[in-house]
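Class, study these two lines:
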Amino acid sequence: MNHIFYIMGKSSSGKDSVYKRLLSDLNLIPVVTYTTRPMRENECNGREYHFVDKKCFDEMCRNGEVIEKRIYNTVYGEWIYFTSGNCINLENGNYIGIGTLESYVRIRDYFGGDTVIPIYIEVDDGIRLIRAVERERLEAFPKYKELCRRFIADSDDFAEENLLFAGIVKRFCNNTEIKSCIDEIENYINKKADA
């Protein structure tokens, strides 16, 4: 049975770095989700996300192609993130995705709990905030206000009761050295993929 390994964590927990390393180290197929938010510097359409407009999102909803969606009222307007069933064919192999706790639950419910395996990355909030500010500072037009909104929203989205309700028990710590976190996740994925 093939799986979807689904990476989650609060903002600036290292999800993107872990995701990219796992893609290069393991034989996994990326789940490329969709968003209506603007593309960041160094992002590429079809790699991090499929960048679409609201009209395309509405059409995909009408066609029944959307598994789950998240709508954020940001300081820059409404941004929509969503997953389409047309980007996952489990006959092709094991997949790896990245998203929120809510998106994990919807994808798990769509494909089944035995198929979708959660990978939750945990980082101390103080460390996350420093990482977030340092990353945003590198942008041509830093969006500090949006950074603060996301940071605060994560406290509610990833509250302990929400994690437990979603069945998230296993956690991978990324407070200090990302290599050891990635090694632990790779071992975990290899065991699950071979089971």
Summary: The longest strand covers residues 66-74. Strands lie at 4-8, 29-30, 34-35, 50-51, 66-74, 77-84, 95-98, 116-122, 171-173.
